[in-house]
Amino acid sequence: MPHPALTPLFGTRCRTEGFARKDPLVGRAQYLYYEAYRDHPQADSWTVRQYVVTESSQDGKSYITTGILDHRLPFARALALLARHEGENHKQPTLYSPLFPNAAALRFNHFRAFAEREGYVFDIDGKPHARPGPGLVPEGATFDQAALDAADRHLERPLEEFGPVPLARRLPDTLFLFDAFNRRAIGKQQGSELAGLRVLNLMDGFVGRIDKMNAALAAYAAAHLSPAAPVHIATAEKELVQARNQLRQIAAYGMDVSAFEKMADECGIVIQVMHAQGIYDQLRRSPAQFDDLEAQFKKCANQAMALYTDLAKKLPQPPKGDEGYVALQEMIIQGGAPVLPGTIATFVTRYRQQRNLMIAPAKAAPPPKL
Fold it and tell me: Distances in Å between the alpha carbon of 84 and those of 6, 77, 94, 108, 302?
C-alpha cells in the first residue's frame, strides 16, 4: 500500500539538469531543461514546464521560450514527470548532451535532492516514493543502496511532518489549553480555578484580536486600490499588537504560548506581504505615481524580509540557503489583488468550535427502562 504523498516544506521550485541539442537548426544553438513549481500557495498543486534557450549566431542574442507540459499535479506526479524527461534525454546521447551545472552542482535546486530533502527516495527505475519515516524504506519497489544513502544524507523533514499532510500549513493547536481545564493539571482550589478562567478569557481575547486582524486584511484585499486602503493595514497592525499583549499576559500564568507567538510572527509577515502586494498592483496601474509607490513598496518588502529573518532564527530547524527569501519575493510580486491566507480564519473557527464544546452542557442520562 503506497504511503501518503509528502507536500514540500522547504521550497516551491525544482528543476532537471540542462541539455544541449547536438543537431540544432543551422546558425542556432539550443539548450533546454524542465522545471516544476508550486502553482497554488495552499494546495499540493504543481505545474511542470519546459524551458528552451536559443542562441543566435547572427545577432548573438539569446531567446527563451517556455511551454507547460502539465499542471495541477500532486508533487509526486510532478517529480515523476521531471524524472522521466531527464532520464529520456540521458538515454539519447546522440541528440542531447548534459550541461553544467549538473545535478550535483545544482544541489537542492535539482529535483532529486529537492525531493530527498522532503522525505522521498528514488527506486532503481528513477521513480519517486514518499518514505513512511526517516530511515524507512517504502514498500512495493526496489531501491539500491546509493539511492537510500543519498536520501538519508539529504533528508531534513522533521519526524512529525511525515504521514498525511493537510493542504494548509499546520496552525497552533488549542486543544492543550482546554485539556488544562478538563484535567487536574490546575487543581480544584478556588484560586487556581479563577486563574484558569482568567487564562481562558485572555485566550478568547487573543483569538478575537486575530479575527479582527483577519477582517481588516480581507477589507484591504478588497479595496487595495482605494485611497483609504492603508487604514485597513493600520487596523490589522494595531490588532496584532493587542493580540501579542494578550499572549504576554497568558504567559505570566505559566502557559506555553510559543506556538501562538510563532503564529503572531507569521501574521506580521502576512500583513507586510499583503501590503506590498497591494502596492505592487498599484505600481502596475499608476505609472504617474511610480516614485512614491516604489518607495512604499520597497519599505514593505524589506520589512517582510526582516520579519522573516527574525522568525527563521527562532525555528528549531532554520531554513537553509536563500529559498525562503526567494519564495517570499515571488509571493510579493505575483501580481493581482493581495492574497489573504485562509488558514488564519480556519484557526479562529477551530478555536471557537473547541471553546463551545468545552462549555456545552452535559447530556442528561437517559431515563431508566421500566
Answer: 20, 10, 18, 18, 40
